[in-house]
Amino acid sequence: MEKLGEKAEAVDNSDMPSFSIAKAWASDPDRLKFSADAYAENLSQCPVTRTPMPGAADVYHVFRAGDVTQVCQDWQSFPSGSEKPRFGQAVIPIEIDPPMHTQYRKLLNGLMSPRRLMGYEADAREFIEEGVAKLVAHGGGDVSQLCRELPLKAFCLLLGEEDTSILEINRKRREASPGLDDSSEEATQARKEQLAPVRAMVRRRVEAVLANPGDDLASEVAHGEIDGRKMTPEEAENMLTILYMAGTGTTTAGMQGTLLRLAMHQDAQEILRREPRKIAAAIEECLRLESPTAMMPRHCAKDTEVDGHVIPAGANVFPVFGAANVDPRAFPEPEKFDIDRKPRHFAFGNGIHQCVGAPLGRMQIRVLVESMFKLTANFTLDGVPQRNIWPHSGFSELKLLVTPV
Ligand code: HEM
Questions:
Q1: What is the C-alpha to C-alpha distance for residues 97 and 326, in angstroms, rounded to an integer?
Q2: Which of 23, 70, 375, 396 is the most exposed place for a label (fewest CB within 10 A)?
Q3: Alpha carbon nearest to ligand 1 atom 39, residue
Q4: 257 near 290, Cβ under 8 Å?
Q5: Distance of CA 317 to the CA centre of its chain
Q6: Which spans in 82-143 are helix H?
Q7: Is the pLDDT of residue 16 over 90?
Q8: pLDDT confidence of residue 146
Q9: Which domains does the chain have, with CATH numbers?
Q10: What is the rounded distance in angstroms from the CA atom of residue 370 to the CA atom of residue 364?
């Protein structure tokens, strides 16, 4: 068997174009058409790019829906695990490959039960309706903060922790964090330090639930079994920390992006207010166009051909979910906002690492949309929203004008 990073033969990709996601995102001045514009050239002309990184392995970006699917499905050639984990230690399960990944996923899949989600939904609705009522009382305002708070609260509920303040502080610190495409030692160290306060909070919870088991998710993880043995406290801490890393900023961006798209499309709002059963599919269309997780890293374990180009062993590879989501080969008229599209999109990834928290993310977005429809007659954009630039998705400011019911 080939070892991770083993080269089959020398590959010369020196004439391949490079790609900067930060530049692509910044190139769209009003940033409302966003994804389709940012990725159009790569999708049509250079679907695989090679970007040299100072002091680190080359980064290859893969854009088309078919190629993103190939990279995500072929975890043997493109594993998520690496000898140099991006947060200093391998994050469970996102930086783990089978067979252990399968074991961790089995445990995690079972934790997002409909019963547990229903319990969270009541709390989420109360919190969001209160926030939307304040917005309505002011005739509108910036909704970006409301969208940041709910996912932090949801994480605390999962953890059985009441105080969200440390997470809010940490969210601000994370705004300076380097993107996952930077695999240098300094970037790894910075990410590790930024995560330290959350890890400490999670560690306290793991110690508490090991001493006094409860019925929250933290307790279930800490007392869970993996591969026929008891989970170690370190594994539990690691697995719970990823729920913060993977589940808060993404959901915030998903909530913000959904409000943006609905505010831009009064016709869609009218249909959804009349036919609420269509809300779930409309949210998927918003997620397709907004792609809160633009891309995620893989490593190339052996020279592998993608779209006629050989990606060499040892490279870092990014399937760009945001680009695949606007690939006309998979989504005809990709820039068109079509709430009847019912897309099988890439916003939650693809393959074995496909998002385990999707039901929780979707529930929070749905509760927000339902609350907006319940308490407003309509809502529109107020000015130009301030979209974040890679490595952050979502908006730093998203102002709406609302008409009360
Ligand atoms: C709209 C909200 C969300 C979006 C767009 C999103 C997106 C994604 C994507 C694209 C992946 C695949 C990563 C990869 O292929 O490397 C992923 C994985 C993951 N997500 Fe989410 N996510 C969301 C919400 C959540 C929530 C609420 C949680 C949990 C609280 C969560 C937990 C995870 C975990 C643990 C993984 C890793 C799964 C694995 O490695 O098997 N996500 N997510």
A1: 28
A2: 23
A3: 353
A4: yes
A5: 17
A6: 100-111, 114-137
A7: yes
A8: 94
A9: 21-404 (1.10.630.10)
A10: 10
Residue 253 beta carbon below 6 angstroms from any ligand 1 atom: no
Dist CA 364 CA 146 (whole Å): 12
By alpha-carbon position, which residue is closest to atom 1 of ligand 1? 251
Nearest CA to ligand 1 atom 16: 296
Dihedral sign from CA coordinates of 97, 100, 106, 109: negative
Judge if the beta carbon of residue 357 lies within 6 A of ligand 1.
Answer: yes
Q: Which of 32, 258, 284 is nearest to 128 (CA)?
A: 258
Alpha carbons 79 and 131: distance in angstroms, whole number: 42
Determine contact, residues 166/198, Cβ cutoff 8 Å.
Answer: yes
Nearest to 223 by CA among 160, 202, 213: 213
Contact 297, 78 (CB under 8 A): no
In this predicted structure, the answer to whether residue 95 has a pLDDT above a threshold of 50 is: yes
pLDDT of 36 strictly over 70 = yes
Mean residue pLDDT across the chain: 91
State pLDDT tens for residues 347-388: 999 999 999 999 999 999 999 999 999 999 999 999 989 888
Name the percent of the chain lying above pLDDT 70: 94
Instruction: Report the Cα–Cα distance between both ends of the chain, in Å, rounded.
Output: 65
pLDDT per residue as tens digits for the range 143-174 = 999 999 999 999 998 898 887 787 777 666 66
